[in-house]
Amino acid sequence: MRFYYSGPGLDGQLLVFVDKSNGDVIGGTQTQSANLTSPQIPTSPNTTQPNFRNLSDSEKSKAIQIALNTTEAASLIQNGTPYTSTLSWVGIIWNGTNSGEVYGFDYNAVETGIPPGIPKNAIIYPRVELEFGNPPNTLIRVAVDLSAGTAVWHDVHGLKR
Fold first, then answer.
1. Rounded Cα–Cα distance for residues 112 and 90 (Å)
2. Is residue 58 a part of any domain in this protein?
3. 3-state DSSP assignment of residue 94
């Protein structure tokens, strides 16, 4: 099981990846800024959060396909790098067109509700996590807008083993 500690870092976000089965740190990174590329940034949050619901199998497949088509993922796939994918959620607070705050949480929150600590003004999107390599050495996380069929945010992290 993986645990992601997401916290403030110097001019960015600090992430630490821990294997909960043995407590080993398996990776970490500090991002300087989020890579947010939404062509249509909402001007206010949608309080009904239409994205936050049980996704159909075809919607899950569509989200994964969108994530696999990001430049970094497509390059790794072209090189034959094996990968696994998992779904989760991300809340994004858009601060202009190219930056924002990002809050990730588990997919099972559909059953339990948006966790405390996720700001009310965050827009919720499905997030695909792609781990590349065997053992995994690269993590790509992609927030997708299913209605637009596009990636609205992604980041790439190296994992240590």
1. 15
2. yes
3. strand
User: What's the domain count of the chain?
Assistant: 1
Are the beta carbons of 70 and 127 closer than 8 angstroms?
no
pLDDT in tens, 79-100: 999 999 999 999 988 877 655 7
Residue 60 corresponds to which tokens in the numbers above?
A: 């899950």
Domain contains 47: yes
Parent domain of 67: 34-158
The closest alpha carbon to 147, from 68, 70, 53, belongs to 53
Distances in Å between the Cα of 136 and the Cα atoms of 21, 24, 28, 47, 71 are 16, 15, 13, 37, 18
Kindly report, residue by residue over 125-137, the tens digit of the pLDDT. Answer: 999 999 999 999 9
Q: Judge whether 89 and 126 are in contact, CB under 8 Å.
A: yes
Residue 83 lies in a domain: yes
Q: Is residue 17 part of a domain?
A: no
**Could you tell me the sign of the dihedral formed by the alpha carbons of 39, 33, 63, 42, in that order?**
negative
CB of 59 closer than 8 Å to CB of 50: no
Query: Is 153:146 a contact under the CB 8 Å cutoff?
Result: no
Cis peptide before 42 (omega within 30 of 0): no
Enter the pTM of the model.
Answer: 0.72
